[in-house]
Amino acid sequence: MNIKFRLIVMNFLEFFVWGSWLISLGGYMFNVLHFNGVQVGSIYGTMGVASLFTPALFGIVADRWLNAERVLGLCHILGAAMLMWASTLHDFSMFYLAMLFNSFFFMPTIALNNTVSYILLDRKGLNAVKNFPPIRVWGTVGFVCALWVVDFCGWKESPLQLYVSAGAGLVLGIYAFTLPACFPLRAGPKPSIFSSLGLDAFVLFRRKKMLIFFIYCMLLGFALQISNAFGSTFITDFSKVPQYADSFGVKHSNLLISISQISETLFILTIPFFLRKFGIKQVIIISIFAWVFRFGLFGIGNPGKGLPLLILSMIVYGMAFDFFNISGSLFVEREADIKIRASAQGLFMLMTNGIGAYFGTLISGWVVDHFTVGGVKDWHTIWLVFAAYALVLGITFPLVFRYRHNQMDAPVRALQH
Known about the structure:
The protein has a two-stranded antiparallel sheet with strand order 1-2. It folds into two domains: 1-182, MFS general substrate transporter like domains (Growth Hormone, Chain: A), CATH 1.20.1250; 201-417, Up-down Bundle (Growth Hormone, Chain: A), CATH 1.20.1250.20. It has 19 helices and two strands. 75% of the residues lie in helices and 1% in strands.
């Protein structure tokens, strides 16, 4: 069978697993399990905890001892088991533990999915830079399809969303074992644990420019998880307001939010133009102010006459997410020594999806609880607080981060081909 098609299936299922619960689980935890904002934030924060070390640890396993596709398969099977367990739980402590273990097994699969794709494309003599993006976009399609399935089936506030994810994870786990073997590299000197964990990249903190950049990566990491944790819950909460209870946006909040993921696939195509025209620093600044609009539009929008504002917020999300992640990654690629580029990319992910995401979900949970009175959340104020936070980042970043615009060369050409 065509290897591209097989990888499309793998990428589709990889993100279908995640999309089945990532957006809608907050509503289930708030309205069915009756967790508070800090508890919901801490459960979403398990992904940040897992991102601190499990991707590197499972990467070592795939590099040294076990085929990458088998590590991918085992992780998904074990993650599916954790989700099945979580679907039976109502106690916060046990639910947190189940989702923490699920994150331990799921978060490494994102990198493993890419690793398997790169290895198999290279084996077939296919250029990964050219051929992987059209394959990876099917991951976003899978994420959107999962959102729609859960939405149209009415499982947004049901443990059945975890069953859907677990079922897809089990299928992908078995499917991964049927992929061509991606053998570990046994030749050559073995890297130290220190190097394998990406810790050698911490030398970059000695450079003021890089230190400031990574601090802002962490601070922007806060914003990356806020929408995931509270976006669907915010829209669903309008069901408590009679004039919005039967609106399309409330009934199909996942469908509305899926516009964000569709926007991602479109904005990623514009990145080469923006990088060439404005440079990395300006693109990052654009991303930060896109977060201001993302949260601000949530604050003033509603599922009635304010529906266009919510839709615009979803569209802006694609710019906020893609522009920061890709331009930030390219900046690290350009600035890090070739010997530690892989570790530097790991550090970039650690600061954003690890430390930043973890503390972001906790702090945002405190904000939500602070503006909740008698069980009623003041979402208008909550989102404006988040928008103000992003605005402060947008104002201060260009003042403290010194980076001269240069015409983008190799990285942009790589994105264009």
